[in-house]
Amino acid sequence: MRAPAAGLQPMEMSFLGNTLDRQSTKRGDKAYIDGLLQRPDTQFVLSTDKTLVFRGDDIQSIGHSLSEAVALGAETKEMVFLGLRPENGQAVFATTVPHTDDDLSERPGLQSIDLRNLALKNLLSPEDLGALAQARALIHWHRTHRFCSSCGEKSVMAEAGYRRDCPTCGAPHFPRTDPCVIMLITDGDRALLGRPARLPEGIYTTLAGFMEPGESIEQAVRRETLEESGIVVGDVQLISNQPWPFPANLMLGCIGTATTFEIEIEDDELEACKWCSREEVRQMVAGTHPEEHKIPPSISIAYELIIGWLDGVI
């Protein structure tokens, strides 16, 4: 793998602006965490199993008070410490509430919004959007890992939400982040773009996939590209990375050079895959493509890879 290339502006991507001081060395200090919980200015990010909960039309305030959180059914023993705001030392926690989105729609003064829509609509500062990405990933892990994978007993939160312990067998469990490779494969003047069926109609994007145990980034890029398109990849270059809280991934953005060019879709992940010239990609970006094909929105690393290649900076 060559050294990372310059040219991308990573702060333009969503979920990279988190500036919270995570105070990781103090998470095990119960008195310290309990003191932060009780401070009157402490904010609590609230979430259902799918969406984030806000006060009325006040999207700019991502947190609630402790009393508001408890009134909605949040439990103090299940509150995850996100960190302190560097500008004023305000503590921010996150937790889940036992309500569906339909339940909340009937409560005056509240609204629930999906994190992806918040990013697409550019409704929050990069700092708050990054904090919400941290919150959603941790909340999802706690909701889906309540029982010990060793003995099956119910686990309890520890280390301010960055561990769950089994009170029966003593096994510790830690939040997971799943690395994914996301790659723009080129032959110099053409880019390989595919269309997963899950995407909105007309959108073509970079190929992507989860890394497997024992793989390097280069190996994962080559394997996933071959599986999805039949294209063999030679040189691979790591360009950038991005937290992707859907539910808890780290996207490793790469550029790869194709050594074969005949596309063979044998995998069921793509419904279409094609080589696109720079002119065709420019049409996708400008919205003038004759078949109304488009690239993904700017919140994703896929967009940055495509635009970076199109502009000649990667």
Tags for this model:
314 residues; alpha+beta; six-stranded mixed β-sheet; five-stranded mixed β-sheet; 8 helices; 26% strand; globular; disordered N terminus
In a few lines, what is going on in this structure?
The chain is α+β, with helices and mostly antiparallel strands.
List the helices and strands and how they pair.
Blueprint: H1 30-38, E1 43-47, E2 52-55, H2 66-71, E3 80-84, E4 91-96, H3 101-105, E5 110-113, H4 115-120, H5 126-144, E6 156-158, E7 163-165, E8 172-173, E9 178-186, E10 190-196, E11 207-210, H6 217-229, E12 233-244, E13 249-258, E14 270-277, H7 278-286, H8 301-310
Parallel strand pairs: 1-4, 9-13
Antiparallel strand pairs: 1-2, 2-5, 3-4, 6-7, 7-8, 9-10, 9-11, 10-14, 12-13
Task: Describe the overall structure.
- The strands form three sheets. Strands 9, 10, 11, 12, 13 and 14 form a six-stranded mixed beta sheet that branches.
- The chain has 314 residues and is α+β, with helices and mostly antiparallel strands.
- β6 (156-158) and β7 form a beta hairpin.
- It has helices spanning 30-38, 66-71, 101-105, 115-120, 126-144, 217-229, 278-286, 301-310; strands at residues 43-47, 52-55, 80-84, 91-96, 110-113, 156-158, 163-165, 172-173, 178-186, 190-196, 207-210, 233-244, 249-258, 270-277.
- It starts with 29 loop residues before the first helix and ends with a helix.
